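Hi everyone,

Forwarding the result from last night's run.
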Amino acid sequence: MGYLTAALEVSSRGLSRKRLSELQTIVAAHATRYDLLIITELDHAIPLGPERDTNAIFRLAAGQHVTAVIDQVRPQAIRMTSKNTDEVVAGAVEQALGHFSKGGS
């Protein structure tokens, strides 16, 4: 949803409020299906890797819109940055192992 709204914004296009509302409802419903949700935060100091889209305007808009969507549907989502990657991954692995050791699927 964040990438869609970013693309619409950057390209000066839009969707009807009704259509956006329908899509937001779908996103919100699916967000509850995850035991753990991690969002990566854009670090402008890190250059894009090879063969990646270099549209800086879209990259910035996508980061902002994805964050806004997650803040709306799962504000407790874990934020992963370039500085806390190891900590977030270790916590995710620990949570997953605990979940599966209890018979989760």
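The radius of gyration is 16 Å.

Cheers,
N.
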